[in-house]
Design a protein that fits this description.
The chain is an alpha+beta fold. The protein contains three helices and 23 strands. A hairpin with a 5-residue loop joins strand 19 and strand 20.
Length: 325
Amino acid sequence: MPPAVVEIAQVEKTNLALSVDIPANIVSQDYAWFSAETTGKIRTIVDIGTKVKKGTIIAKLQTTTLRAQREEQKNAVDAAGARIDYLRNQVKRLQELRNQNIASESQIEETQSQLNLAISSQATTQARLMQVDIGIAASNIRAQFDGTVTEHGIQVGEWASPGQRIIRLVNLAEKELIARVPLNTIRFAKVDDEFTINTIDQQGAATIKAIVPFGEITDGVYEIRMDLNKGDWKVGESVTIQVPQSAAQAVTTVPRDAILLRSGGSSVVKLNSDKSFTRIAVTTGLGNKQRIEVRAVDGELNIGDDVIIRGAERLQDGQEIVIKE
């Protein structure tokens, strides 16, 4: 018979635990609705799907009324300043006349009181002017982080009021994973643990960065947040994560592809040092997506032994073996 081409892997000692698949979601670390801070008609708004940088104006409100109010308040501030200058000069002249016994003390006190009132009135008007300036600045709604516009809460030409949602921004680059883990399982998870993430068509990994230290009695779950380490994930994508249900223990494992399933039971094919092979019946135990625990039923299987993971199905006794590099 022609030589059989096979692929091999080693028997290893692996820390494994009972695990359960938990639904989870990929979310953005930065996502927010930006609301109006002042009243006005929407003049412009950035199109949905547009990528913007932090500080970019993403919506504008008309400011015609606010600018008219600003001009009014500015004129009032200037008028108050002119009256303050006049009253200060009056106080100064009256003090000079008092030294000549021409003006009375009551005249000076009355003029000084008018001056103090004018100064207070100017400060109030100046505060109103500042409020108008704040409203004008707030009419330009700016992005507070890099992101993509995903939704409009209002359209151009519509009237906005303070607190009304205007535009939604999502940072699609900075992602994290959120999962809700049963209370009887969370005790086996801790910060910095890495878990496997799975979907139908890809696999990745994520590391726990925070465990919310509170669980609702009605829900019976804790929330965990994880940094994504591997995989090309999209915001909004649903995945599953493998969460341990018991303490990890060191066990002898082989790749799952090394297990041959037959009606009589499971087995692996061990490659000997002289390139011959031995079929060893095994039982299986704990496992993850890549490896599975094995215990030899007959024969001997040790850490570091080579087992065939490709090409073992059609091996005939005495057939020569070529290892694929």
